[in-house]
Amino acid sequence: MDRPLVIVIPIFNGLTALDAIGPYEVLHRLPNVSLHFVSHQPGLYSTDKSILSLQATGSFLDFPHPDVIVFPGGFGTRSLIHDRSILDWLRQAHSTSIFTTSVCTGSLLLAAAGILNGLEATTHWNAFNELERLGAKPVSQRIVKQGKIITAAGVSAGIDMALELAALLRDEETAKILQLYIEYDPKPPYDVGSTEKAGEELIDRTREFIKKTKASLSKIE
């Protein structure tokens, strides 16, 4: 491909910053790509804590047929699943994309658009029921590939997904170079980063923490 590969990352109020920034840090370093943050209109959009904002430099209408879609998640996805304009754009963009991907609850948007009907997919572990209600088959995996559709689990999984996507778009050597470039060599201080490792008590306490976080965010909104 002589022209730059067009990659778009939709942003919106209430997104989780790392869902977008993690893949961005990998994918914008690929050779011969043109990466854009897009939304309904250009401008600033606040993340789920309203402290950090990201800027969309283009609108969905400016990019009707991107090569790659990376849809991030966050609490803001819950209102977007009823947004006809974004769902119509997703269906159109997906029809010609090379890859359509999501991070965390970004997969809820893919499901709401009908892209995941009957397909295995993943999302944040606390949103499996929502994903299933929207027609997908949730599976507890960090990355799930279904043809040209790739879904990633919660938040940090977006970096892993982006590295796998880099290998698919270019080659494994390039993906390895990018992984070393960003020095991605995770060694978390606690080995509780999945529901399989965390145990029921910590899962319950985390669910309660999430509920309180949602409640505080709704007051801000």
UniProtKB/TrEMBL annotation:
Residues 7-166 form the DJ-1/PfpI domain. Gene3D superfamilies: 3.40.50.880. InterPro entries: Class_I_gatase-like (IPR029062), DJ-1/PfpI (IPR002818), INH-QAR (IPR052158). GO terms for biological process: regulation of DNA-templated transcription. SUPFAM superfamilies: Class I glutamine amidotransferase-like (SSF52317). Pfam families: DJ-1_PfpI. This is DJ-1/PfpI domain-containing protein.
